[in-house]
Design goal:
Chain lengths: 369, 369
């Protein structure tokens, strides 16, 4: 089902919108936490509700291997399986698969399971069908994701195969007995850091026609300006009334930069991964809690963020739990970092409504740039 | 301060009581979860409040080494450090130290830190003073804990040294500037499985005079009947109006057996450790969730325990998280096992009030024996 973006405010290219899916709505700009195997690490669906999360990601690659798409389908889909009544999105598995050096042909990709080494095969059609079984509100097409930097011909081949797969994935989705009623399917624009290829990939993806559009294959190690240049040209070519999703981005600067270029959605493991390593997001920048300067510090993690779910405990106490390896620490830091990120995005949204996005953008670069 | 037990019901030797400490009261029989380093693994003080926990244990050995008693004192004691407004108890460190093969003399014990190998020394006096800094509501004397089985002369030496240390610990506690106002100090009865030595140790400990009494050095691998025989003779000699604490016990059968013999308090890492290994407490006995028979099982962990904090999720989902190593699983299983244990003890209490403890005892043996 077409994901419709109702734009309620704009400030430059930055958009505030409400996106309507088959089974619910969400506000953008929207940060989506990653629950790789059906749970955000250390958290439950009740925690995600307490955090007011709107959409949670699941990884098709992991879920198709463990516990398997059939099992999740039997339980009524990923949301019901995890007892999460908010919205869900599954990636296509492409990103993980391409990090495993798969055998790729026009027909599909053959790769090994990290769990038991067994061989698996994914095609644009099966990736869509598996995601229909996983039953998330949004499914993503299988795309070809090149590591960067890459030669132009490598990027061009990836764009071509991504376009070929996009058509087949769309046909599979639309002819699936139930997917289109319950789910939206997003296409993915590739092309690396090459602006002309990004333009070509955008045009070819929009021509196929999807329910929403993603920008893939960036934020994979390239420089910030290399990452941002293609974003502007892509969003200029995407339909205004459908959501735009930048895949794999979750740092404050990256978020304001892509929102400034008209992006609505983004996801990343960064806030939760940082938390597990003791790095805490605060209004004055990152702190690493294992640093000895926090011994005896009786302030909360971010003294200006009163609604943090970690505000009951001091840096001193949480540092102690962190450095002694107590699993309570990564849990509390994960809650904090996600709440902080949602609060950040909430302030970002408000700045768009108030026509103060440029100021918010500038402040974010000053603290985090 | 003397911990006063007001007995509100009895059924045989099983007692229901309300214990008054300097800063609060608690109900017995009482299961105390273990927060080794100031947190129960995977849980926070807010979780413990949700679970209606009354007292939480901290381990002096661990806390004196990391983060150090001085730091905890600076934060206002263990409860304030962890933002836990319920009651706390610290062990003396003896149990951990004796598992490290320390050098023990009449004066005290010298042992190494598991954190950095550094050498440390603990005396009855310093164990009391450190626990005064930790500031728990109940502190325990430093005792000599023999591994079992042991020769009678080894047990006798341990009883003698424990008695010597008890006197010195009591003097240190009573002459400490603030400890006696804020804390209660419990003596510990030793003597292994030797009934005559248990009698001697009880008499000598009661003669020193403590605010409450513990039975130590049991539930360390001996058989069930060897464990229980000394309990009866000890509780017969302990004052009626003070609490009795069996150290290191947390299985349903063990609990009913010691409560049947007049014990009020018990602690154990068992329910939380089992949870981390996927073993779940249920009304029909233990289940190991990693077992393949739980694949696709859409029941909650214990279908008859509706108030479980895990009741939102199926065995199938939690098994998936468990076998893929997701840290959400040990957290949810820990919450379940602790809630289950508190519910079990709550039913046990009710059976005493209702004069049906014998029936409860029998049923527990049938399911768990």
């Amino acid at each position: 089902m077409k994901a419709l973006s109702e734009i309620t405010a704009k400030d430059g290219k930055a958009r505030l919108s409400e996106v309507t899916l088959a089974n619910g709505k969400f506000q953008t700009p929207c940060f989506m936490p990653v629950g790789t195997r059906g749970a955000v690490k250390h958290l439950s669906s009740l925690d995600m509700k307490d955090l007011n999360a709107e959409i949670i990601l699941g990884n098709t690659y992991h879920l198709m291997l463990r516990p398997g798409a059939d099992l999740i389908k039997k339980h009524g889909g990923l949301g019901k399986f995890a007892n999460w009544d908010g919205l869900t999105l599954t990636d296509s598995g492409g990103y993980q698969i391409f990090s495993l050096k798969p055998k790729v042909e026009d027909e599909g990709a053959t790769f090994r399971s990290i769990y038991d080494g067994s061989s698996h095969h994914l095609t644009p059609e099966s990736a869509s069908s598996i995601q229909a079984d996983l039953g998330a509100d949004i499914q993503m097409v299988l795309d070809v994701c090149s590591a960067l930097p890459a030669e132009r011909n490598v990027l061009k081949d990836a764009v071509d195969r991504t376009a070929l797969w996009a058509e087949r994935a769309r046909t599979a989705f639309l002819t699936h007995p139930t997917a289109n009623e319950k789910q939206s399917q997003f296409g993915i624009v590739q092309g690396g850091t090459d602006t002309s290829l990004r333009i070509e990939s955008t045009e070819r993806t929009v021509e196929v026609g999807f329910d929403g559009y993603a920008i893939g294959g960036l934020s994979v190690g390239e420089g910030r300006s290399e990452m941002l240049e293609p974003v502007d040209v892509v969003t200029d070519l995407l339909p205004e009334d459908q959501p735009r999703y930048f895949m794999g981005l979750g740092d404050p600067v990256g978020i304001v930069e892509v929102v400034a270029r008209g992006v609505d959605m983004f996801d990343c493991v960064l806030p939760t991964r940082l938390a597990r390593h003791g790095t805490v997001l605060t209004s004055t920048g990152r702190i690493n809690l294992s640093n000895a300067r926090f011994i005896g510090d009786d302030q909360p993690l971010d003294p200006t963020f009163e609604n943090s779910p970690a505000s009951s405990w001091s840096r001193s106490y949480l540092r102690h739990l962190l450095v002694t390896g107590e699993p309570t620490a990564p849990r509390i830091l994960t809650l904090h970092n996600l709440a902080w990120m949602f609060d950040f995005v909430s302030k970002l949204r408000k700045s768009i409504v108030d026509g103060e996005f440029e100021e918010f953008h500038k402040q974010t670069l000053e603290i985090w740039g």
